[in-house]
Amino acid sequence: MSRRLTKVLVPVGALLVAAAVTLAVLQPWSSVAETPKDDDKPVTTKAELTTLTSDLRLNGSLSYGASTALPGRGGTITRLPAAGDVIEAGQSIYEVDGKPVIAMRGDRPFWRDLGVGVENGPDVRQLEQALADLGFGKDMTVDDEFTRVTEANVKAWQKSLGVTKDGVVKLGDVVAITAASVRVDSVTGKLGDPAATSPLTYTSTTLRVVATLTEAQAREILPATPVTVILPDGTEVPATVAAVDPGGQPTGKEGETTPATANIEFEDPAVAEGIGLRAVKVVFATSEVKDALVVPVTALVATTDGGYAVDVLRKGGKVERVSVEVGLIADTRVQVVGGDLAAGDAVVVAQ
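Below the sequence we write its predicted structure tokens.
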């Protein structure tokens, strides 16, 4: 009747042992097994068959992900975006010496002027791919060679921007960003500053959740694990673990390292828009039992032999004590097995 989930995130056996120890030690409902008096009027609830799930709950926070510093260049800063602005590839991200610096998607910084005659290289391929993505790839093969066809497409792109059509992409004319669009996280430069230092930092445009993990959790939680995120207003939304960072990187402070974290992505990122970068809860289902016979924890009675029982109100008002075994415990409910107890039976709960 019991089924474990494919991905077990915490040692469920340890969870049950800990819960059982808690029941045995605290025993808030009873410390000894005493037969209820016949003239008592007990409070009861019905035992039920249901799916019982034990959860691991972690604190998380909404985030746009890690921040990346935009590289600097020569000249003087003459225009800057505002924090929170979204910049798409092909748009001006800021301005130097009165000329736009265009964002182009790429994984590596541009490091030289690019034009006909330049030595073949991966930066040429990156430029050609970026031009093609922007719709300026006519008759062009995306490769490491800057050809006359590449030059013609650069000129067409320059014409669309209203800048000089010389077919050469000079160092500083474009800057690589890591996605098709980015969100300005912070503006570190000021108008009139030398552009040599980073003018701003940027992040992804997609909200996700970052949850801090223990070392053990970082080893056990796997990418692609489904989770539920509880938003500040109580709304529960589905999400998935995208990546797990084991941490351990120096923070710059003596003796401190970064914590392990899980990066969690929403199935529909729009559900978190407009909330702000607030705290949330992340729920991992760790163990599940289908068709479990469940009673409230407060229905359990600790017996003198170290076991457990429940008091059942039978027809005619007779209370019968029934020995049971404890299965999965989740929140305030517990699975019971064995004994003369069935779904629908009225079990006595502590007042």
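The two ends are 31 Å apart (CA to CA).
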